[in-house]
Amino acid sequence: MQGDRLTRGGGSADDSAPSIEMVEVGFVAAESQVRQRVALVAGGTGLTGAALLRLLLRNNDYARVHALTRRPLPLDHARLANRILRFEELGSRLMGLRCTDAYCCIGAAGGPRAPVAELRQVDRDLVLAFARAAQAAGATRLVVVSAAHADSRSSRPFLACKGEMEVALRELRFPSLEILQPGPVLGLRRGAGLADLVRLALLPLLNPLLRGNMEPSRAIAAADLAAAMLGAGRSPRQGVYTHAARNLRDLAVAGHRPG
User: Fold this and answer.
1) For a Cys-Cys bond, which of 82, 157, 173, 219 suits 203, CB 3.0-4.6 Å?
2) In whole angstroms, what is the distance from residue 243 CA to residue 178 CA?
3) 178: containing domain
4) CATH number where 250 lies
């Protein structure tokens, strides 16, 4: 599904002063709306989440950014509020918090290689708990990281959990739900070894060879995935959208634009 295309009308040189006043009032209203937007982010200590937080704080899309983490963030910013909690306490610890948009980068350590029980607990159940808490806090838009080829019927536990998560999120009926389905996410992680560095170097070289049904499996840099999340958050559209392959790259371009 494609996003809405915004157009901007132009006036003639003979436009009267009242028309100019209307434009100015509209600009002030739009600027006020931006100032009132509040982001709620889960997973800010991970590779993609950390990149997303840096992007949100570098731009002015949100007046406030609430980051939910289990340990303190190495960030200090006037618009950042770091709430340190156990994610099992999401419902009770977020009472009174209000937000407009929610971003979820939660994922089990090890990704596809994580134990099945951990995948179900983190990639499915914890994501849903965050989504419900964000909805209770007033979020009308949820941007969430899933995975390429996610399918609740898949024989691969990682893809099955991601697919089950997507199905459950749809049932929450957010006015706007943006599901990002990336391939392998690239970046330097803690404790990366030689094999990780080789993988980091080789996977981008394979991207041009992945075409057709395999194109969604192309690797993407964590910084670009974070930008795609912001690009999705900037869209005024409503409904459920899934993004993979080229669509992710288009969103990343929109997210990298200064805002």
Assistant:
1) 219
2) 8
3) 37-256
4) 3.40.50.720
